[in-house]
UniProtKB/TrEMBL annotation:
Keyword vocabulary terms for this entry: DNA-binding, Transcription, Transcription regulation
Protein name: GntR family transcriptional regulator
Keyword Membrane belongs to the record: no
Residues covered by the HTH gntR-type domain: 8-76
Pfam family of the protein (one): GntR
Matching InterPro entries: Bact_HTH_transcr_reg (IPR050679), Chorismate_lyase_/UTRA_dom_sf (IPR028978), Tscrpt_reg_HTH_GntR (IPR000524), UTRA (IPR011663), WH-like_DNA-bd_sf (IPR036388), WH_DNA-bd_sf (IPR036390)
SUPFAM superfamilies named in the record: Chorismate lyase-like, Winged helix' DNA-binding domain
Length: 236
């Protein structure tokens, strides 16, 4: 399975598209925007994703929502309206994932601590090899609570950007915290990445919580430095 990588969450993609439609006057102040069903069909995303984008724009005063009535454009956004953020990009054109192995159990104490799970709760650990144009670029360990795994299919676990895919499964990420550091490849990782043990890697750790603060994933990904870009973008 292959898919193109896009690290921007779906609701932000929809939000920015709505902003552009208002800026270019496709939708003018006072006019109705398309219905939720129409937007879901246009952007091929879930209803919760559309609602999150609209809610944020309403909070920013760009859209106006009223119970039982259509959402309308309240005002044209300024040229500075855009979320600051962190852009992470793997270099390549076509991206895919291979599952190396999976482990299920009540051990993995460190992963459960990071996810805030109790000793009795079980975790699934998926080791995944990330590839760009058929070439290994990263070794990944993805830890998922058992109650989340129960709602996933084998195909879900082969999605390249699993974090963004959670939205489409109805598990809206509400909070993510990421750490970036450097590490050295061990023998096990090096064999899969086609490098020598001791070679440097970009080490990224991410913890994701849902809207109700329930744990969704704990992920550790080790990238070959030549295949990874990390950009922090802020706007005034």
């Amino acid at each position: 399975m292959t898919q193109r990588q896009n690290r921007v969450p779906y609701y932000l993609q929809v939000k920015h598209s709505i902003i552009e439609n208002i800026k270019n006057q496709s939708w003018k102040p006072g006019e109705k925007i398309p219905s939720e069903n129409q937007l879901m069909q246009e952007y091929q995303v879930s209803r919760s994703t559309i609602r999150q984008a609209i809610t944020q724009l309403a909070q920013e005063g760009i859209l106006e929502t009223k119970r039982g009535k259509s959402t309308t454009v309240k005002k044209k956004p300024s040229d500075h309206v855009k979320n600051p953020g962190v852009i992470q990009r793997e270099k390549g054109t076509e991206f895919s994932v291979q599952i190396i192995r999976n482990v299920h159990g009540k051990k993995m104490d460190y992963a459960k601590k990071m996810l805030g799970l109790s000793e009795e709760q079980a975790v699934y650990m998926y080791e995944r090899l990330r590839l760009a144009d058929g070439v290994p670029i990263a070794f990944q360990q993805l830890f998922i609570p058992e109650h989340i795994v129960e709602s996933l299919t084998d195909e879900d676990l082969l999605v390249f950007d699993f974090h963004a895919h959670l939205e489409e499964k109805g598990m809206q990420p509400n909070y993510s915290k990421e750490y970036v550091s450097a590490s050295l490849a061990n023998t096990y990782e090096a064999d899969f990445l086609g490098i020598v043990a001791g070679d440097p890697l970009v080490d990224m750790t991410r913890i994701t919580l849902g809207i109700d603060q329930s744990p969704l994933e704990y992920c550790r990904t080790k990238y070959l430095p030549t295949f990874f870009d990390f950009t922090v973008e802020t706007r005034g």
